[in-house]
Amino acid sequence: MASGKGKKKTTKKRVSVPKKKGRKPFYMLPDWLHWLVTISLICIVSAVAYYLFLRPYFYRLRPCMGAREYGICLPTGFLHYGIDVSHHQGKIDWDRVASSSQANGYPIKFVIMKATESDTFTDPDYRDNIADARKAGFVCGVYHFYDPGTSPDKQAKHFINTVNLLKGDLVPVVDVERAGRASDLRKDLLVYLKTLERHYGVKPIIYASAKFRRRHLNTAEFDAYPFWVAHYYVVRPVTDKQWRIWQFTDHASVDGIREYTDFNVFRGTDADFNSLRIK
After folding, report:
1. What kind of fold does domain 65-274 have according to CATH?
2. What is the pTM of this model?
């Protein structure tokens, strides 16, 4: 027979294992730390937005130290003012441009217009612009928009076949805004410049922003050419190179031109200005 004694029940003791301490989630952090992180993020985003999007336009809110003509703060102390145009300005009434600029006391004396780009494009308004601007009495210059991905010989040939500069015109201009490979740009651009120099008998003007010139064309070979600097929203252009022409705005309003246009000043005397004209 079976024994009447029952078996004893055994109970296991629970062993508590200490929880590993980890980082608290963000929502469990103290309120003061929430505020610190939020304010820091707002400051960073605001600083980036100001630097990239707002700062350039604050110049327009500064007190105008020069003459306010053409809807812009016009730098004073210069003898020669000028504009540059292309087909983007639409059909231009050059007689109105001449008469209106004479009337406001700061007459436009020179006009530089786009003629060509790369090795095939010709500005559709170039021929009308240069013919009518010459008739209106402006000193005319012509520029080529340089393409670093296209043969410099073909680009020079296209410009030469398109542009017939006359006595009294400004020397030719090359507009350089795209870098491509910097080493190739410098080598090829010199080929382009030398080709124009041989054909027209003068050194062309190089147009570039101050930053672009400093980054890509900061060599002795290019110092030999007159420099036309584009630098907006500053009292004077910041560049370590000597400049002859300064494009200080792209937002000028000129009677006779429907769209806004670029405005420029020439630094130097009448003799300096005439030294950049075709003899």
Report:
1. TIM Barrel (3.20.20)
2. 0.79
